[in-house]
């Protein structure tokens, strides 16, 4: 399957064990140098496969420890030094080969080195396949704040090969599944029902559907000023939970909990006509996803004061009103405090 993103001039291929298609794309740039950015876990798993894909090309490999803490200013500086020391220029390319951490920092480096060089995304986790590999958001964490420094910058090509999922454990699959559930809550109840009831997911179908929902929100709003903001469902509380847990909870788990809390608050406020948050809890439990995290509301509010969605002391929160529909609501921090308390309290 393929998706053409005309607005940003790139193509997404969704394949299974189709390294030749990726290699053919790379060979179109065979005069260029390539920097493959990856993490140690992915490299250890796929060293032979990666080197076969890159065989005959002029390439370098830069790898760092796996995990959210590698999405740091220190790594950003070190990768830029590596590019400079090896004389990379604007005709050369970066290949992001890994999960969301690799993709985010690679895209940020690509967007800023020499004011922008091309990069290719080869996501290897379910979350990165359906989220961070598309949409053009890149960045690093700073002072324990998620994606505090970053850019909007699109890849030239995205190669999604879901055979990489075969190396993931259940928790890493579920990390992506939580984000996929988010897309269904945003736009498609039939998709939600399929996800809730299915144990053996058709990954080609799920990835294709998720990306089309995401791209519908990104289209004509690449800088997150309007409808794209709805993709932040669950993220306001979720990013705070992720930070408070010191990244012991992963991104998908945190966003999933955030979505449940928003749905519960929506029902208690009368914005939602029924208590569909219980359907979310049931669906998440079916897939062994966490549905609750204890935190101090004042601590999370302190983190959220640095949220990128704040403007004029108001924060834009996405609230689900039923499965398949959400609304935007701007609120001050007193209102947000009430919303969080309602979301936490499962009466």
In short:
The chain is 46% helix and 21% strand. β1 and β2 form a beta hairpin. The chain has 13 helices and 12 strands.
What report would you give on this structure?
By secondary structure, this protein is α/β, with parallel strands linked by helices. The protein has 13 helices and 12 strands. Strands 1-2-9-6-5-3-4 form a 7-stranded mixed beta sheet, with helices on both faces. Strand 3, helix 2 and strand 4 form a beta-alpha-beta unit. Helix 9 (235-244) crosses helix 10 (251-268), helix 10 (251-268) runs antiparallel to helix 11 (277-286) and helix 10 (251-268) crosses helix 13 (333-344). The longest helix has 18 residues, at 170-187. It is globular and about 60 Å long. The N and C termini lie far apart (45 Å). The mean pLDDT is 93.
